[in-house]
Amino acid sequence: MNLYTKLQQRAADNKPIRIGLIGAGKFGSMYLAQVPRTPGVHLVGIADLNPSAAKANLARVGWASERSSARSLDDAMKLGTTFVSDDWRALVTHPAIDVVVECTGNPIAAVEHCLLAFDHGKHVVNVTVEADAFCGALLAQKAAEAGVVYSMAFGDQPALICDLVDWARTCGFPVVAAGRGHKWLPHFAQSTPDTVWGYYGLTPEQAARGGLNPKMFNSFLDGSKPSIESTAVSNATGLAVPSNGLLYPPASVEDIPFVTRPISEGGVLEQKGMVEVISSLEANGRKIPYDIRMGVWVTVEAETDYIKNCFEEYNAHTDPSGRYFTLYKRWHLIGLEVGVSVASVALRGEPTGVATAWNADVVATAKRDLNAGEILDGEGGFTVWGKLLPAKTSLAIGGLPLGLAHDVRLIRPVPQGQSLTWDDVAIDSTTAAYKTRREMELKFSGRSLGRI
User: Fold this and answer.
1) pTM higher than 0.90, yes or no?
2) Virtual torsion, Cα 285, 289, 294, 300, nearest 10 deg
3) DSSP state at residue 400
C-alpha cells in the first residue's frame, strides 16, 4: 500500500529506479505516457527496432523533445534524460539499469532479452506474456538463480487476476475460479487480421487513429490471447485449466458467481479451483448488459454458515445458494498501470505475478486446412490460433507452443481444428526461446508437473 511513498523517497534521495524499455509500440507508449508523472523513476533508455517510430510515439504521448535528446546511455545518466536507439544489448547490459521492461510482443525475442537481463543482474517486468506462457516457469527459476525478480506486468489482465487470487487466499477464501472477460463467439477462432475490426467492434479509422496492430488485436479476438493469459494465471497460481480448452460461458457480472461453480452444482467448472474466461456475448450474438469484457474476476466460496451469513448481511452478490461470491474489476488500463510492477520489483523485490509451476500450455491449432510448405504466422495471424490445454496433455501429444509458431514451415498437412505438434514443423532449434522451452519440458517431464 506504500509504493508511492517509497517512490517519493527515492525521488527525494535522488536515487531513482533506473529503467530500460525494450519496445515502444502501443503497450510501451502507454507506459511512457505515465513516466513523466511518476516520481522516483528515470527511464534511462529505450531500445526499439525503429528508433524514429519510438521517438514519434514519445511525441504522441506528450514527451517534450528534450527529454529524449541524450546521445548515449551515459549521457542520459548524467542529464536525467532518455537515450533512444535500436541496441537492446547495450541497454540490457548497461550497469546503471535496475529494471528492464520487455515490451516487444515478440515472444522469441523476449526470451533472449529476459535471459541476458538476468545474466547482468537486472530485474525484468515481462509484458510479452506470450513468452511467459510457453516457458515462464523456467524463466522464473533462472531469474531466482541469478538473484533478480521476474514479473508479469501489472495492468495486463494476468497480473490483475493474480492480484485478486492473492487477495482471496490472503483473506482465507478458497478460490473456486478466476479469470477475465472476453467478447467471444466460436467462429472468432477463424478470424484473421482482415476480419478483426468488424468483429472487435472498431472501425478501421478508429484502429488507424490509435496505431492499433490488426494482428495483435486479432490475437485477442481469436481466443489466442485469452488462452495465453489464462495459461500465465494457471502457472502463477496453481489453478487448473479445462481439459479441452476454454468454455467461454456467457454471463453478466451478476451471473459470474452462478456460472463459475462446479457442474455438479449448476455451473460449468469440471472442478473447483480453475481458470475460465467469461463471454460478453450470448450464443446468438446478443450483447450481455453489464458485461465483464474488459475486466477480471475471482469467485470464492464461503466454507461455513457464518461466512455465508456475512455475505448475506453485507449484501454481497452471490449465487442462489449464497455460498459463492465474485469480486471483480470491470476495467483494466493496460500499459498505463505498468509502473506498479516496476515499483514492486525494484522497491519490494516482489513480482506482480510470476510462474511457479507448469500446469498449462497454449498449443498452436489450425484455423483452416493447412498444407505442407506453408509458413505459420503465429498468434493473431492467418494460420493458427492458440488452444489452452493442461500441460500434461500438451506434453503427451508433443504440442507445438503457440509462442514458437512464428515463421515456421509446415512439413505435413494439418486439418482445421487440429492442434499442431513438433513433428508437423521444421523449427529453428538454435534460438534461446526454443532451447528454453525444451529445457523446461525436460525438467518437468521426469516428474509430476507441479510446483518448482
Assistant:
1) yes
2) -110
3) P
